[in-house]
Amino acid sequence: MTQPDDDAPAATAKRGDSAAAVTAGLVDGHGSSAVGRSVTINRSPADLYRYFRDFANLPSFMENIASIVVTDDVRSHWVVKAPAGATVEWDARVTEDEPDRLIAWTTEPGADVPNSGRIEFRPAGDRGTVVTATIAYDPPAGIVGKVIAKLFQREPAIQARRDLRRFKQLMETGEVATPAMNPKQFEEMGL
Amino acid sequence: MKALAWHGKHDVRIDNVPDPEIVNPRDCIIKVTSTAICGSDLHLYDGYIPTMQKGDILGHEFMGEVIEVGAKSTLKKGQRVVVPFTIACGSCYHCGKHQYSACPNGLPADNQDIAQELYGHEMSGLFGYSHMTGGYAGGQAEYVRVPFSDVGPIVIPDGVPDDKVLFLSDILPTGWQAAEYAQIEPGDTVAVWGCGPVGLFAVQSAFLMGAERVIAIDHFPHRLELAKRFGAETINFEESATYEALMEMTGGIGPDAVIDAVGLEAHGLFVDNVIDQIKASTFLGTDRPHSIRQAIIACRKGGRVSMPAVYGGFVDKFPLGAFMEKGLTLKTGQTHVQHYMPALLNAIMEDKIDTEFLISHRMPLEQAPKGYEMFKNNQNEVTKVVLKPGMTMAA
Q: Are the Cβ atoms of B21 and A168 closer than 8 angstroms?
């Protein structure tokens, strides 16, 4: 939304610094890369907010989470799979929390991958809820790390897109789609 | 179990693979009793469809007996079911509108990237039809894992033979949807390109929907004969000039609606087709759209174009000018199978639609590789191969 004649979200900008525009809109926002993604889910904002706000639920549709430990009402510790079998960790703090509307977070100092973001739930009439995730992050090892992560399909933009699709599937159907022929194969393939 | 697996262009084999098990709560497992080779399986066989991997189990027209159910399946062990080839959830926005083939919830999240890149949107998952459509194991096997078994499969009453209802899985609803998309009005003349299974079901459907005349176009004499059996007039495009014949047969008006039931592997020595074939073989183009071009040129002004035929990528020399100037309407898409199954099962039970006429060959699953070869090389006589797991091997 850098021009008066352009209502498109900041994350879709072709030129300039979309990360700066994204982080400017966040409480304690930081990060040099940005990703924004929306999906419409055929459930109420209240249902989706409730499921998402219990961070212990997130590994059911987020592929790269090794574990999330909720430490108090606003703090949680994240262990996330990184390329080549490594993991990265951070402590996250909820910065905005409006029931049925939005949740925003930022990482505490010392995070392996500093990031901040917001997930919003907007009513969409008989189509359910538009869920928009906006995430700003510092790619590990800068731009080279981002390229390597992409090769390993753990690039945050790819992950966000796929995680949102799985969130939709889980909320609409009660399960996450998989071509696995048995539970063992499902485990091996991951979500 | 035994299953028919893809190993490369013109190379399909019977492999031994582990039996499928319940993975998700809405799954069921069926023991396949009948499974057909589809014309669109030949696109895989001929190597036209990308994202295939060695060992992929093919088959998307199948039925069988429920032998295991997940916690949230509504089916019961022992029930006989026909399975729709489109894997759809029944609870999303698109399923709510009965646009089942647009359901995003049957297609695994990782597989959605390819379709989103190529088509702008992800489509439903399909059985046994490349990784772009989900990488699901198909039905040319002894057993299949069926997701969303509470909304997809249709239960078949006892005593109704497989051969009568098997085609509810794909080609009958596809032919019916093609005729519906032609928006037929009483007194209409409908032209159908291609007398394969979909074309032949479109012929029957068009008459049931009130068409006065149906003109069927092909070059295989036996297939044209079958179209005639259902009351169609025919044009053999190797004997007669199609456009001129259609104009003369309709008093210079052209057919009111045209149906392209041929698709991306059109036959025939036409200049555009030969160029397309060279382009496709050198990957300069992906499809050989001769039939849709001809259908658009022949269609009467203000008429309707229905395109059940499968296209996968990009075409050139699409007659956009003719399409615009004549004010045509085009309707197309993968079939919303679940939407049509109940009514079509009734139509079969009431003998309004003949299905069994189509089956030219029945063979054991073990002979599937031979079935593909026969189907590919003798499309005149081989109209439909149905594989029967457990059937005694023919001598």
A: no
Nearest to B135 among A161, A175, A179 (CB): A179
A162 to B89: CB separation less than 8 angstroms, yes or no: no
Alpha-carbon gap: A39 to the closest alpha carbon of chain B (Å): 11
> What's the gap in Å between the CA of B96 and the closest CA on chain A?
10
Which residue type is seen at A126? D
Reduced to 3 states (helix: H, G, I; strand: E, B; else coil), residue B238 is: coil
Q: What was the ipTM of the complex prediction?
A: 0.90
Structure-token pair, residue B234? 């025919």
Which of B16, B23, B56, B116 to mutate against chain A (most A CBs within 10 Å)? B23
CB contact under 8 A, B104 and A168: yes
> Contact A166/B109, CB-based, under 8 Å?
yes
> Is residue B321 located within the same domain as residue B369?
no
User: Residue A186 is which amino acid?
Assistant: F
Number of CB pairs, chain A paired with chain B, less than 8 A apart: 82
By residue count, chain A amounts to 191
Q: How many CA atoms lie within 13 A of B296 on its CB side?
A: 21
A16 pLDDT more than 90: no
Q: Do residue A183 and residue B137 have CB atoms under 8 angstroms apart?
A: no
Hey, where are the domains in chain A? 16-189
Question: In terms of domains, do B109 and B230 share one?
Answer: no
Contact A177 B18 (CB under 8 A): no
Question: Pairing relation of β-strands A115-123 and A129-137?
Answer: antiparallel
* Residue the block writes with tokens 């032609």: B182
Q: From 3.40.50.720, 3.40.50.300, 2.60.40.1730, 3.30.530.20, which CATH number describes the A16-189 domain?
A: 3.30.530.20
Task: Tell me the C-alpha distance between B15 and B137, whole Å.
Answer: 13
Question: Is this structure's pTM higher than 0.80?
Answer: yes
How does pLDDT run across B168-224, given as a tens digit for each residue?
999 999 999 999 999 999 999 999 999 999 999 999 999 999 999 999 999 999 999
Tokens 């973001």 belong to A117
